[in-house]
Design brief:
The protein is α+β, with helices and mostly antiparallel strands. The chain contains five helices and five strands.
Length: 186
């Protein structure tokens, strides 16, 4: 890689490329370099139940999630009507953003070094929160742990779902990658 391209890599991205990839290949006994687990994307999601009655709230939450992620969030629509909750198909009820490449690694670094240490009564993430494909998901109860959010400007403290989409052979390989990035898993 040329110097121009190296300067545009984030710290965690260069850490993975230079050290963690080779270390994981050795630790997990991978014969092929493509077998080593890799982070594909990070998806951030916020559900907003109050958006049923007031659409302005959804726009405010969209702006807050855009600040956290560093890129514009999109509003999500309901796929199926639920009469008990007064929700109709096609209503906007949530916000999400998908991070890839440099922004993904920058968010991961901010999450590990700044946001998770600020979570109240934090004892580590659950090691069993993997799905069948080896993706890891967890929730943050207060989105104000991110320094980009101005506490005085928000109307309500909301939760945030974070999903790491990983390319790996098994849950154990995914866990090894997340631990290598210093994610505080119990």
């Amino acid at each position: 890689m040329s110097k121009v391209q190296t300067q545009t890599l984030s710290h965690y991205q260069s850490l993975y490329r230079d050290k963690l990839h080779d270390q994981l290949m050795k630790d997990l006994a991978c014969k092929n370099p493509h077998e080593v687990p890799k982070l594909k994307k990070i998806v951030l999601n916020m559900g907003v139940t109050e958006a049923v009655s007031d659409n302005k709230i959804l726009n405010q939450v969209q702006d807050e999630l855009s600040l956290i992620a560093g890129q514009r969030a999109v509003q999500t629509r309901v796929k199926k009507s639920i009469a008990g909750f007064k929700i109709r198909e096609g209503m906007k009820i949530g916000v999400k953003v998908t991070l890839r490449k440099r922004r993904m690694y920058e968010f991961l670094e901010r999450l590990v070094n700044i946001a998770l240490p600020r979570v109240r009564d934090f004892r580590g993430l659950n090691p069993r929160s993997f799905d069948a494909q080896g993706n890891y998901s967890f929730g943050i109860k207060e989105h104000i742990v991110f320094p980009e959010i101005n506490y005085d400007a928000i109307s309500k403290i909301r939760g945030l779902d974070v999903t790491f989409c990983l390319e790996s052979k098994s849950k154990e390989h995914s866990l090894a990658l997340l631990r290598a990035f210093n994610l505080p898993i119990k």
